[in-house]
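User: I'm putting together notes for a lab meeting next week and I want to include a structural view of one of the chains we've been expressing. I don't have a solved structure, so I'd like a prediction I can at least talk through. The sequence is below, exactly as it appears in our construct file.
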Amino acid sequence: MTGFIFSEFRPDEKNTTPFQGLFDIFRQILLITSGNVGETLEWMNELDRKYTLTSNSYGMGDFIEDLKNKGYLKEGESEDLHILPSLEISLRQSALEEIFGKLRKGKSGEHQTPHIGKGDEDSADNRSFRFGDATDQIEFSESFRNSQLRNALNADSSSLLEEDLVVREKEHRTQTATVLMIDISHSMILYGEDRITPAKKVALALAELIRKKYPRDLLDIIVFGNDAWPVTLKDLPYLQVGPYHTNTVAGLELALDILRKRKTPGKQIFMITDGKPTCLKEKGRYYKNSFGLDPKIMNRTFDLADRCRKLKIPITTFMIASDPYLQEYVREFTQINQGQAYYSHLQDLGQFVFESFQRNRKKYI
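Assistant: Thanks for the context. Below is the predicted structure for the 365-residue chain, given as structure tokens.
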């Protein structure tokens, strides 16, 4: 838990129930502990002793029972607590709300809103109005025609009623296939700074955004250390950094393999990393060099950036480190690919990822 500063918890300021206030903290720590429920509750008990999170009327035991009763946790045979799917969904939803909340409070400009749209493109089909349909979907000419036909049968009426309204159906189309690459090399937790938790949170939020707003868009998530492999949504809360180097080449090769199979108008790669490539795998062995920018590793990485450019696959790199020589590497990588690069602080990572996703997506509509 190094790198985090806690202050006294004041639930009244948030206007939340005792359960909800503790639940917000529980979800945050659960991501930090990579889904370890026991460790999370141990930390919450420690914080409770130090900052008085609970009261005499609602203690930590009550909170644990509520987690089970509400279907977030279940107790195993050895009394261990296990995460249920409803909690995994809640983690995605809270991540989405947290990042969208930051966008709502940000500066004016081309920020997206948290309101989920009904679709992407008008289809040729009309249907009757349903509660919740947006007013801009209403086909007024057809709706007034229905009103006139109804009123012709009823001389005492000239109103436009809900039953007259017709809306143009929205059709969801697959516009983009996105591969999100997450660096899980050891440097993502070095120097007392937790960089992997914000990356997991962004992945959870992006997945929830696409699921709700663009349900036919495709998102694949992969991680890369010494090697690269795909992870599922269910895997995300449990991701951990390993004693790995940074094999960016393996990550990019896997991303390309995935995108080759996607039949979509737009394809893109997002890469969240905090360091330079330091590893390759060739002929069954690892070639590693953590000291400076190794030309052999760099050239292979740049070759892949160029290959993606030729395939019209832009790479957006989110570098969460500020070392000048790392920025130089990212600039050259981005120039070769003709993609985009952001040098972001951890607290800005979500905003940059979301705005880039929305902006890139518009190119394919």
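A couple of points you could mention at the meeting. Residues 121-171 form one domain. The chain has three domains: 11-83, 121-171, 176-362.

User: Perfect, that's what I needed.
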